[in-house]
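stage 2 :: seqdesign
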């Protein structure tokens, strides 16, 4: 496995010096190697979970807690029309 560290850095928009790229190469190869080991594990019949413990997520009631205050908030605006802010035209 030969990872092009400079290409990966460019894709991630990270600027690396040649010395940094040389140092990171073996580290990235070990990471990718570990991911390949994980991919080789047989997970057939294993149910996907979001948490390692069997527990339910607490849910809150789906109720409106903040009412529409548009009219009150727009009173400070210099000009509104049909519930929208009117601004000067900036592009001809």
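stage 2 :: out
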């Amino acid at each position: 496995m030969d990872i092009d560290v400079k290409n990966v850095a460019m894709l991630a928009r990270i600027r690396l010096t040649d010395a940094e790229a040389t140092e990171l190469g073996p580290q990235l190869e070990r990471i990718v190697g570990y991911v390949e080991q994980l991919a080789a594990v047989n997970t057939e019949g294993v149910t996907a979970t979001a948490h390692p413990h069997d527990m339910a997520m607490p849910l809150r009631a789906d109720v409106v807690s903040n009412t529409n205050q548009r009219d009150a908030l727009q009173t400070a605006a210099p000009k509104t029309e049909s519930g929208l802010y009117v601004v000067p035209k900036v592009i001809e």
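stage 3 :: structure notes
- The two ends are 56 Å apart (CA to CA).
- The longest helix spans residues 18-39.
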